[in-house]
## 1
Amino acid sequence: MNKRLKLLAIFAVIFLFANGPYYVAVADHGYGKEKSWHEKLFDRDDDDDDEKHHRKRYLAPVSNAAYKEECGACHFVYQPELLPSASWERILDSLEDHFGDAVELDPDASKTILDYLSANAAEHSSAKRAVKIMRSLRATVPLRITEIPYIRRKHHEVTPDVLKRESIGSLSNCSACHTTAEDGIYEDDYVVIPK
Ligand code: HEC
Ligand code: HEC
């Protein structure tokens, strides 16, 4: 090999190695904007990434009886990992005007539920979706899961007239379309949009 070719080969190797950490840095901050070409190339929706980081694949199914009973009376019981604890606090602190409804809860139940939701909130989870939710929020504290930029982005193809269907009602009704929502599984393979 002549000298110039050798030098070129060395540069090529350095370039490849130097790009590894660069890619990781970009990937960590890359959500919330369009993916760039190198993210598209390397980011195959992160399933391989999960194994590398020992992330949990799915959200844990709801396991608290009081939460299921009190909060499941009107809608799907959202997994605690879908919101940060600061959001759960805001929600529990404003139950007298809960999205237009008044929710009554005795102080014991309220404490039990908030303790459960906070201890299992998104910021304590290593599940892929929870990690993406925390990244996407950038320290904001939403009152709704459906306000989270990551969640909004994932549903941008669902049109308002689909949501208005009697079988759905609103985007808040996760289990209408995610057939495995109760199990904490939101993978697109299990989405069926009802007529
Ligand atoms: C009396 C009925 C009722 C009860 C009981 C109730 N909710 Fe709700 N909740 C609602 C309504 C109505 C909405 C708005 C749904 C919509 O926009 O389609 C809502 C929305 C929510 C959302 C936001 C969903 C989204 O759009 O991302 C969360 C989170 C939530 N409730 C948590 C709770 C918790 C926690 C409890 C128990 C302390 C609870 N709810 C009990 C009626 C209720
Ligand atoms: C009207 C039907 C519908 C409702 C209601 C709905 N989703 Fe979805 N969801 C979808 C569709 C469609 C996709 C996109 C699937 C795809 O990428 O092809 C999706 C994607 C997702 C994804 C990303 C999955 C992936 O594989 O990347 C998550 C997480 C998610 N939804 C969570 C929720 C949560 C939480 C709720 C309730 C607050 C909800 N969805 C309500 C239809 C729905």
Note: The pocket of heme C (ligand 1) is lined by residues 70-71, 73-75, 78, 91, 95, 98-99, 101, 103, 105, 113, 144-146, 170, 172 (CB under 6 Å).
## 2
Amino acid sequence: MKTAVKWMVLSVLVMGMTGCSEYGRMRETPGVKPHEEPLLIMREGVVPFDGGEEILRNTPGEALSSPLNMKDAAVAAAGAKEYVNYCIHCHGKNYDGYGTVGQSFAPKPDDLREADVQGMSDGELFQYIGYSKPKSRHPALATTVSIIDRWRITAYIKSLGIRP
Ligand code: HEC
């Protein structure tokens, strides 16, 4: 028994010294020390810092226009599908906030067919969905819902009109 322990200790030591384990290969890496090599300078235009999502976020809502035809019934129909994916659990199948999750909010989520919501411009509604607003309890869904789907959902909600 004692000899077995001795052998185990010895073999671990040998493995460690010779680096015959998986990690041995780490010795082959160049091991660059900080500042030994000049910093990688990015080619211009590789990292977007004021394009895409930033333009959509920072343009005033009323000035933001959709790349889609927002009056097209097919666009709204596509938005209806995404509403089921991303909104219905809070806003409900009747858009009144009585969704499975929405019921737990106090006060509950706004009725999407109320005049305030229907009075928002397409751009304002698009921005609210993606970025929410300070102090709002709304989730900012920009990283969850694609840009094009946010426009589709916007078209769908606007197509519902004010509740009679
Ligand atoms: C986690 C639950 C939840 C989800 C998911 C959700 N909402 Fe909401 N929504 C809320 C709550 C809560 C409010 C009320 C926010 C407040 O006033 O603090 C709200 C309010 C709103 C308003 C009213 C804004 C206003 O200023 O009157 C709009 C429009 C809206 N949601 C659209 C959507 C759309 C479109 C989706 C799907 C893409 C969605 N929401 C997904 C919970 C949710």
Note: The two ends are 87 Å apart (CA to CA).
